[in-house]
């Protein structure tokens, strides 16, 4: 790895010659600006305002623009001769617990490599001291034209340095948090904990840049004269209003994605008043149905009784009429017979 800075670590009276190399690398895809009509490259040319001509890179230097607009030239030699002990030295100023460093201050990361055989012993001494103390070293160093703050820690068998922002470069989180009062229930926290337990364990080596891979597929397809792959349809979900339901669904989905059995999550019991209404309505419906059935039975019974009474009345009337008719006929017959007998006697 190519070094970007050469100097020494100042550890009290101990000086450790080191080389600084980048600890990270970018895999992002870069694009060129082109003329859309013919695909020609777009390039920027650098012109001098006073001479109105293009200048080469070797003719370009640094300058500071003053308040009145005048330019003060600054050369690399001027910066190299800065009266700072950190110009070529990473000066350790303190050792503190690692949790004292706010991650918001973390910046670029570098590896510090021992420069030559004489640096091996003091380099190893500093590394082992950091390991045994479980602390990190806070240091000041100058890089790329300005003094910076750094944190030294052990990574494997090497010493790494993280550039740190100065405390006044980190903004306070004012106006970021919700400005309304919100109450979180214990059940919601329990579900959030369950979701964190499910999603919390992951091997960082398994994570990769899917966006970069998708861009590479598009580039490969267009280079081969093929149509680029189409984007999948985004999931159309409605606005989630029930936080509990969203948490429960998230826990189930996370467990299923890991091949685990769906989470058995029980909802909080609802209020009794909320359940009383349906039961009361059901009771009313049942009572109405019972009353209606009883009314039908009573009506049918009354109708049947009325029919029987009417039939009995008709039969009694018919019987009475027949009896009266028989008596009347008998009287007429007796009277007729008496008259005939009397006539016969007079004739004799």
From TrEMBL:
How does the annotation summarize its subunit structure? Homodimer. Interacts with LigD.
Q: In its keyword annotation, does this UniProt entry include Mitochondrion? A: no
Which regions are flagged for Low complexity bias?
Answer: 279-328
Q: What GO biological process terms are annotated to this protein in UniProt?
A: DNA recombination; double-strand break repair via nonhomologous end joining
Q: Which UniProt keywords apply?
A: DNA damage, DNA recombination, DNA repair, DNA-binding
**Keyword Membrane included in the entry's annotation:** no
State the family it belongs to: Belongs to the prokaryotic Ku family.
Q: Which Pfam families match?
A: Ku
User: Region labeled Disordered — which residues?
Assistant: 252-348
Organism listed in the record:
Streptomyces regalis
Annotated GO molecular function terms are: double-stranded DNA binding
Please describe what this protein does. With LigD forms a non-homologous end joining (NHEJ) DNA repair enzyme, which repairs dsDNA breaks with reduced fidelity. Binds linear dsDNA with 5'- and 3'- overhangs but not closed circular dsDNA nor ssDNA. Recruits and stimulates the ligase activity of LigD.
Name this protein carries in UniProt = Non-homologous end joining protein Ku
Family matches, as Gene3D superfamilies: 2.40.290.10
Give the compositionally biased regions (Basic residues): 329-348
Ku domain: residues covered:
52-181
Q: Which gene encodes it?
A: ku
Say which domain of life the source belongs to: Bacteria
Q: Bias category Basic and acidic residues: which stretches?
A: 253-273
């Amino acid at each position: 790895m190519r070094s970007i800075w050469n100097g020494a670590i100042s550890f009290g009276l101990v000086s450790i010659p080191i080389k600084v190399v980048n600890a990270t690398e970018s895999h992002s895809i870069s694009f060129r600006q082109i003329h859309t009509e013919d695909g020609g490259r777009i390039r920027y040319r650098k012109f001098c305002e006073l001479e109105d001509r293009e200048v080469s890179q070797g003719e370009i230097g640094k300058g500071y623009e003053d308040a009145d607009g005048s330019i003060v030239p600054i050369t690399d030699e001027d910066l190299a001769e800065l009266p700072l002990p950190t110009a070529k030295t990473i000066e350790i100023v303190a050792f503190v617990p690692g949790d004292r460093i706010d991650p918001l201050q973390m910046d670029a990361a570098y590896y510090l490599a021992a420069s030559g055989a004489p640096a091996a012993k003091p380099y190893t001494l500093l590394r082992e001291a950091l390991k045994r103390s479980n602390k990190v070293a806070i240091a000041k160093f100058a890089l790329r034209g300005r003094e910076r703050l750094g944190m030294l820690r052990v990574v494997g068998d090497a010493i790494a340095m993280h550039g740190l922002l100065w405390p006044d470069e980190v903004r306070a989180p004012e106006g970021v948090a919700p400005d309304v009062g919100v109450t979180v229930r214990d059940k919601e926290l329990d579900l959030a904990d369950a979701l964190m337990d499910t999603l919390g364990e992951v091997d960082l080596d398994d994570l990769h840049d899917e966006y970069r891979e998708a861009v590479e597929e598009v580039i490969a397809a267009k280079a081969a004269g093929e149509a680029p792959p189409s984007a999948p349809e985004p999931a159309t979900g409605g606005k989630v209003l029930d936080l509990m339901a969203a948490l429960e669904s998230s826990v189930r989905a996370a467990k299923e994605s890991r091949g685990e059995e769906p989470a058995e999550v029980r909802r909080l019991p609802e209020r009794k008043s909320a359940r009383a209404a349906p039961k009361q309505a059901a009771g009313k419906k049942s009572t109405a149905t019972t009353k209606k059935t009883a009314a039908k039975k009573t009506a049918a019974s009354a109708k049947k009784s009325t029919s029987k009474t009417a039939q009995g009345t008709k039969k009694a009337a018919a019987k009475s009429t027949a009896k009266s008719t028989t008596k009347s006929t008998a009287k007429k017959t007796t009277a007729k017979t008496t008259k005939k007998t009397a006539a016969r006697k007079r004739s004799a």
